[in-house]
Amino acid sequence: MVHPWLHIYKGNLYGGTDWMERKYGWKRDHTGEKKTHFWEKCLKFDLACICLFACLVICGMGKGEAVRESVVSAVKMQAGGGGASGQALQGEGNAEKKKVAITFDDGPHPQYTPEMLAGLKERNVKATFFLLGEEVEKYPELVEQIQEEGHLIGNHSYKHEQLSKLSMDQACAQVTRTNELIYGITGVYPAYLRPPFGDWHQELDCKVNMVEVLWDVDTRDWSIQNHGRIVEKALRDVQENDIILMHDGYETSVTAAMEIIDTLLERGFEFVTVDEMIFD
Q1: Residue 10 and residue 106 share a domain
Q2: Can you give the residue range of the structural domain that contains 221?
Q3: Annotated catalytic, 169?
Q4: Which one of 106, 156, 247, 248 is the catalytic residue?
Q5: What's the pLDDT tens digit per position in 131-171?
């Protein structure tokens, strides 16, 4: 049954129902009821889809992050071929590892530096070696090996003298002589200087264009020379972004360093050289 006002609207304003039949394609069957064309059914279906989509949007408000994660996960699963490979791709790069730098002073040592390098290579760990000029002169092949295996080489002065107690000329000579020795072997001038005893000569700032590197965790391995105590001290004190001070001139330093590295790797730390720690 047609509503009276609609009947008037169709009949009086538009010339009756014939106009509606011409405009919308309505047809009447033998009972007098209207039939619709196929396109009209499609239109109704489209309208229903739009309504359904609107409902989903309204109901899903506040859950955009979950939806986004679901879409990203699905895309990554598709890119990774699904299954375990897709899951691995999804987790890749989500968690950034904590950084720590391990450093070794006073080398190179003819016996323990090669042992230290072997242990680092086995674990695929890069370290920083602050070398003494007088040791560089004795063992240039070890300096070359340190560089070839991807470690960073720094300057630790020539004879391990307290720079602040030297004259300016003497302090500069300690640094520049060692720089020249390292450059003669590696072809690279060291950019990082660790002054012996951590004692910086104030006037060197104007004379030496190098970055001073100290430490956060002093294992005192040179003094303790006890594997267990060295490990305990390092693991108790170390935190993210710390620089660990050790030496490569003692057997206990080598074994303790390897245990420290293994433990920190298990704890989710990543070992970097001091330049990465300073500038990243």
Answers
A1: no
A2: 98-279
A3: no
A4: 247
A5: 999 999 999 999 999 999 999 999 999 999 998 898 888 99
